[in-house]
């Protein structure tokens, strides 16, 4: 047997030295992973980026978990919310309501999210409600949320319950939800179906005592009322769901601004990378074009279009039964639009992208639309176009349209009529019809936008 002189081999390590070497090895591995991640973010082909970021948990990863509560509001923040304490012996309702304020609405929504989530997860035995039943639910002790957009309840349930699904919510989109104590042991979840315009209710497991009652208790009446509770002579021409607060509102006047200089190559690269493109562009009259297997077009006025019929650049989760994962569908489309908007505005956008609708089509594809909100007030473009439009089919976004616009508060206020005067003016024009009255900004393409009452 050959004898090896110990002086030529590595010296034996003590336990402490072995621990130090192990820590060094772990640091090397972590640095290597960081290098791979940074390379993917800046240099690698777009096909590799989503995979690497999924592995390392990057901001564009297609994660299976749902959004946390701080990010749910990015996708489906209610425009209005209220807590009703019920009706007293004199028949007078007591209600705390908030609208035209992102911060107040989000605060109330966060406080009640647990109850609404349980209501959605446990919803069973759907029944049809009359208009009078719906109004009774609005006056009962409970929680009211108005999203001013058709929200898929399957997605809302998943977000509020850490991925829990409820088959009873499938293919149901609602703009308004009410979780109310109607006198039973458990609360009833009511909603307005955006497809047929009718009201429905589910039984739930939310106990009317305990946490439900204690959540409502801290709130006091601030004069919030619905139109059906007010003077019928003044509000007879408007929908009874119009919420009126005791205090008047003076919406801000905004100016439109553009921070991104598209003539600068670096600025265009930033926008392209936000949309996961890593290629050279070329200029055609009025726009820049990026072309790989698919095509991205960017115009100087902030219109961005994408076409990729069979591309998997923007994958969307598909469930085991082959149907679209609606929660992932909304997360993916909203992230794409919001990332582009953030680059275009140069900072956190003042305008919030709010869901207008997520609509399944007969061929299995989906249409997703978003509009802008400015501090809880919806914004519409005078040409009727969306802020963002997506077509999703075969597990991927195949085309989209973005209208990137940035707004800044001028410090001035938009003079508007009170609800009573606006309702009276509407009655003179309604021709006997009942219309929905809402406060809205209109962007005509000019330098400023201001709020005004509109009917629809």
List the helices and strands and how they pair.
Elements: H1 15-42, H2 49-56, H3 69-76, E1 80-87, E2 93-99, H4 102-121, E3 124-129, H5 131-139, E4 142-152, H6 153-160, E5 173-180, E6 186-193, E7 199-207, H7 211-216, E8 225-226, H8 232-235, E9 243-244, E10 252-257, H9 265-274, E11 281-284, E12 287-291, E13 295-299, E14 303-307, H10 326-345, E15 352-360, E16 366-374, E17 377-381, E18 388-393, E19 396-403, E20 406-413, H11 419-430, E21 437-443, E22 448-449, E23 451-455
Parallel strand pairs: 17-21
Antiparallel strand pairs: 1-2, 1-4, 3-7, 4-5, 5-6, 6-7, 8-9, 10-20, 10-22, 11-12, 12-13, 13-14, 14-19, 15-16, 16-17, 16-18, 18-19, 21-23
Helix pairs in contact: 1-2, 4-6, 6-10, 9-10
Explained architecture:
- By secondary structure, the protein is an alpha+beta fold.
- It is built from eleven helices and 23 strands.
- The strands form four sheets. Strands 11, 12, 13, 14, 15, 16, 17, 18, 19, 21 and 23 form an eleven-stranded mixed sheet that branches. A seven-stranded antiparallel sheet has the order 2-1-4-5-6-7-3.
- Helix 4 packs across helix 6 and helix 9 runs antiparallel to helix 10.
- The radius of gyration is 26 Å and the shape is globular.
- It starts with 14 loop residues before the first helix and ends with a strand.
Mean pLDDT: 84
H/I helix tally? 11
- Quaternary status of these chains? single chain
Low-confidence stretches: 1-13, 22-66
Q: Rounded to an integer, what's the Rg over CA atoms? A: 26 Å
Q: How much strand?
A: 25-35%
Helix content class: 25-40%
- Helix-and-strand structural type: alpha+beta
User: How far apart, in Å, are the first and last alpha carbons?
Assistant: 96 Å
Sketch the major β-sheet. 11 strands, mixed
Indicate the overall shape. globular
Please provide the count of β strands. 23
């Amino acid at each position: 047997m050959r004898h090896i002189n110990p002086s030529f081999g590595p010296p034996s390590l003590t336990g402490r030295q072995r621990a130090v070497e192990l820590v060094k090895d772990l640091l090397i591995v972590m640095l290597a992973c960081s290098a791979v991640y940074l390379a993917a973010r800046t240099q690698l082909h777009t096909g590799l980026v989503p995979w690497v970021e999924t592995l390392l948990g990057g901001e564009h990863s297609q994660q299976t978990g749902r959004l946390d509560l701080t990010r749910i509001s990015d996708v489906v923040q209610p425009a209005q919310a209220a807590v009703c304490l019920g009706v007293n012996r004199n028949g007078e309702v007591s209600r705390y309501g908030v609208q035209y304020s992102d911060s107040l609405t989000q605060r109330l929504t966060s406080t009640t999210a647990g109850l609404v989530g349980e209501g959605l997860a446990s919803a069973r035995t759907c029944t049809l409600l009359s208009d009078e039943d719906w109004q009774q639910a609005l006056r009962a002790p409970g929680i009211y949320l108005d999203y001013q957009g058709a929200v898929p309840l399957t997605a809302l349930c998943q977000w509020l319950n850490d991925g829990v699904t409820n088959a009873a919510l499938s293919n149901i989109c609602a703009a308004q939800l009410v979780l109310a104590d109607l006198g039973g042991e458990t609360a009833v979840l009511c909603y307005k179906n955006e497809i047929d315009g009718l009201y429905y209710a589910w039984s739930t497991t939310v106990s009317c005592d305990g946490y439900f009652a204690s959540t409502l208790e801290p709130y006091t009446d601030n004069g919030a009322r619905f139109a059906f509770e007010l003077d019928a002579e003044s509000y007879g021409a408007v929908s009874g769901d119009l919420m009126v607060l005791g205090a008047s509102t003076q919406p801000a006047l905004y100016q439109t601004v553009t921070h991104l200089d598209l003539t600068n190559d670096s600025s265009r690269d930033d926008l392209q990378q936000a949309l996961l493109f890593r290629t050279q562009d070329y200029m055609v009259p009025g726009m820049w074009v990026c072309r790989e297997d698919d095509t991205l077009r960017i115009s100087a006025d902030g219109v961005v279009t994408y076409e990729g019929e069979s591309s998997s650049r923007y994958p969307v989760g598909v469930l085991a039964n082959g149907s679209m994962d609606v929660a992932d569908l909304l997360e993916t489309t909203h992230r794409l639009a919001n990332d582009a908007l953030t680059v275009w505005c140069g900072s956190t956008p003042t305008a919030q992208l709010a869901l207008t609708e997520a609509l399944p089509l007969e061929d299995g594809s989906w249409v997703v639309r978003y509009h802008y909100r400015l501090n809880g007030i919806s914004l519409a473009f005078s040409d009727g176009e969306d802020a963002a439009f997506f077509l999703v089919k075969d597990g991927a976004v195949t085309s989209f349209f973005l209208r990137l616009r940035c707004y800044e508060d001028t410090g001035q206020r938009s003079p508007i009529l009170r609800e009573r005067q606006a309702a009276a003016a509407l009655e003179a024009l309604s021709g006997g019809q009942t219309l929905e009255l809402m406060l809205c900004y209109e962007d005509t393409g000019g330098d400023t936008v201001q709020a005004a009452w509109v009917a629809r």
